[in-house]
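Would you mind writing out the residues of a protein together with its fold in token form for me to study?
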Amino acid sequence: MPNPIDTFSDPVLGATWGELGAVRRAARLDERWHIDAVVGYPVDGLQEMYTRALSEALNDAVVLDLAFAPPPSRNATAAGHLIAVASGKGGVGKSTTAVNLALGLDRAGARTGILDADIYGPSQGMMLGVADGRRPEVRDQRLFVPIRAHGIEAMSMSMLTDEKTPMVWRGPMASGALRQLLEQTDWGGLDYLVVDMPPGTGDIQLTLSQQAAVSGVVIVTTPQDIALLDARKGIEMFQKVDIPILGIVENMSWFECGCGEVHHLFGEGGGARVAAEYGVELLGAFPLDPGIRESTDAGSPTVVADPTGRVAGLYVDCARRVAGALWQQSAIAATPPSITMDDK
């Protein structure tokens, strides 16, 4: 008889816990279900809600032991899963998305870092409020110790140079700098390392895809047709180098004026259309909100500046979906092929 817990639909992914392999043990004792479940995305703050959802699904009392364990990473280093956040063009809010996703993963209960891979135009130092002139320590004369900011580990060229100093480097030099930042940073046993990519499909993207075991990529766009065109180019590039597309994030999706009316200034539903076209998820949609820009410019991104606010909640939910997409891909890859027989 199948375990009824296996048919429970995961609230983040929609797939059943049986398909995902989430249920470690389940038994009905003392007139209630005792369930030990491990999911592949961070679950801080979800225990009560999931217990309630399981109780409703089973129409029975439930005692739930819910834990988080990320799936095995392709990356053998302490940096954990590498999640690239990329865009086909600049100006779509990619870096803002990257830092808030990293902070969202941390807030949800995962050990998280962020690597600023934009060698020419690094911005994560300012976004995280790292003072200009603050430098990472060097351990054993060969490893950078990442700077901790708002609970996450961070490394960026902006932490190694003056903020007014341009990187006048040719492509191979920038690629070499990225390899050093990734490989010569003493990441402290992370679950996820969010990599803020430069816009476009150039040397840095190729270097990361060829030199590092990237678990997946999140594509950031806006609803504008030109941004969607470039988003498709980014998706195609990462598919060519066999990096899984975890999904799409759409920024500037709507603007809500003081009167409460919602306006779609740059079009509507573009991110969802591209996601459907490539068979991936729309991981999140975020408003055109001056507060997002203001808090990030001040060195305190939205998830930190307004942790109980609506937009911060959207970022945390999106971060869980990103981690969940990694888990789901891992679960699918681990499913053995079925063997069928006929009498022909």
